[in-house]
Amino acid sequence: MKSPLFLSFLIIINFFPFVLTSQNFGVDTKKTLIIAHRGASGTAPENTLSAVKKAMDAGADIIEIDVHLTKDRQLVVMHDETVDRTTNGTGKIKDLTLKEIKALDAGEWFSKEFGGEIAPTLEEVMKLIAGKHKLLIEIKPTWTGDFETEKQVLGYVNAFNAASWCIIQSFDNKVLENVRALDKSIEIHKLAILNIPVLPLHYDNALRWGSFLKYKQWSSLSVYHKGLNKNKIRRIKDREQKAFAWTVNDFKDMDEMIAMGVDGIITDFPERLKIRLRLK
Q1: What is the mean pLDDT of residues 95-101?
Q2: Which residue in 37, 133, 189, 202 is the catalytic one?
Q3: DSSP strand pairing (134-139 vs 242-246)
Q4: Cα 125 from Cα 62, distance rounded (Å)
Q5: SS (H, E, C) 105-150
Q6: Catalytic choice (68, 79, 133, 189)
Q7: Which of 60, 96, 144, 195 has the fewest Cβ atoms nearer than 10 Å?
Q8: 79 assigned to active site
Q9: pLDDT at 279 over 60
């Protein structure tokens, strides 16, 4: 999400005032869900059990994580395609076995306090949460090309009898279509970044035709917060979808999203958002 193209979009949108000022629109803030981004990733290394525990302690309604398939086809909880940024190792996840990834330190990059932290599997995260919070699982595209990630994620959801507390999301439309083909009932969220001003285009994991508002088939649209405004949120909610905003860390941005009536806010700092909601 930090590609030159994406950064160019961020520059462009600064010249288009489509994010309204923070104004109270009569929103019931009690209904604003707190969604911990990669766990409480502002206070613990992202996508680790420590981050999940901190999100639970902070009272997050939903905990979001990312999953990738390893070389030996195991589901590991990490965001990037490589282990380089969030461990002391190097290489693509698809080229490493789970055992090799488990041998890496996934915490010291964040701070010495978390030295020795190990990247968890989806199974380990689900055992920890155990239905006490909802789990939002972002599925990265399967490198095997045979629905393997989608199949395995749904296999764990079934094994834990977790359909009531698990949600699937992705930027990738094919992943979402695969999940729906495999499971007709699980809640699915579509991730998007923003509409391109003036042009009939939007950006998710690629540049695509039309507005992201065209995705009417999913339970929720989860959009980069700079790509939302009051009108877009209203249009999403009028058709009985939920509108989520990501990744919202500053108090000003939190206030703006709350005022405009989003259903949920994805944040690295769930404890900070909880305090903000109490002040409303």
Answers
A1: 98
A2: 37
A3: unpaired
A4: 13
A5: CCCCCCCHHHCCCCCCEHHHHHHHHCCCCEEEEEECCCCCCCCHHH
A6: 79
A7: 144
A8: yes
A9: yes
